[in-house]
Sequence to fold (311 residues):
Amino acid sequence: MVVVGAGLAGVACARELAAAGVPVSVRERAHVPGGRMASRRFDGRPADTGAAYFTVSDPGFALLVEEWRAAGLAREWTDTFVSYGRDGRREVPGPMRWAAPRGLRSLVEHLARDVPVTVDRLVLGVEPGPRVDGDPCAAIVLAMPGPQAALLLDPALVAATAVVEAQRWSPTLAGVLRFPDRAWADFRGAFVNDHPLLSTVCDDGDRRGDGAPVLVAHTTPEFASRHLLQPTAAAPAIEEAVRDLLALPEPAEHVHVHRWTYAKPTVAGRGTYHLDADGIGLAGDAFGTPRVQTAWRSGRDLGRALVGRLA
Ligand SMILES: Cc1cc2nc3c(=O)[nH]c(=O)nc-3n(C[C@H](O)[C@H](O)[C@H](O)COP(=O)(O)OP(=O)(O)OC[C@H]3O[C@@H](n4cnc5c(N)ncnc54)[C@H](O)[C@@H]3O)c2cc1C
Fold:
């Protein structure tokens, strides 16, 4: 069994298979697992450049989160964000948001500890058989955004192709802004409404718990789509918008921009995963609301379905 993609969905699926004694390997094109639960190090300190936090409502996911918490990897962050909009700034209570002191990627790495993940392994093609890059296998799981899966799927695999082609995705740019000092009024994270450029800004030092003067801003899909070819050129505009929003007196020392061409699905797929008679499985956050918990549940459910099919 081959799982392509070591984001949370792929790793959750592989873990389910491995726990049932099914031989499985995971192939990941990046240097590290994690996918959109992405943390990048700046001068040795990780900042979350993908998902900003996660929330928990599924009892099965809650058990996993408890494991992460017990291992010192996850912590409750805040249930209160601020909201900026036409009516000014106000506090908005919401669900408890969880963060990871070592970055959200550390959670996927922890989950992947018992499954064989090969990194730096770009998969190029999935053909009927099923075969992955020419190798036959019992089944193949594509755990990634639909447009990335579409690049791999032979059109003869009609059922899976139809599912990925029905998905719609929106882009985001993530700007990591490192300042000399924490010069902003106390806040944890902000939803920015009706803004031409910003959608959220989070205090990365607060969510990490080390108080570092680092903010991470996510842009609107509209702004991102105009800068996909040259995301770094958007850095000055992102910095200006954040300084303006939070009335910051000093410029950032360093701004890094990360491009997410497929940040979030905009249409929820049916069910929690796809598995067809061709032996192709699809998992990820497109099967529900675009959330960390959705990705985990999708991978877990597909793993269980594959175990059931093999039995
Ligand atoms: C900017 C941003 C902000 C977000 N904010 C939040 C939030 O606050 N809260 C929340 O709950 N969720 C948030 N999300 C969503 C959350 O990150 C995702 O739901 C979740 O991480 C998706 O996991 P996944 O495993 O489905 O996909 P991914 O994490 O995308 O994993 C797919 C993996 O497949 C790999 N891959 C792709 N193609 C190939 C190939 N050909 N060969 C080998 N490997 C391949 C990729 O490298 C990647 O590692 C956010 C996402 C983004 C981008």
Notes: Residues 4-10, 27-30, 35-37, 50-54, 122-123, 143-145, 148, 152, 172, 174, 218, 260, 263-264, 284-285, 290-292, 295 surround flavin-adenine dinucleotide (CB under 6 Å).
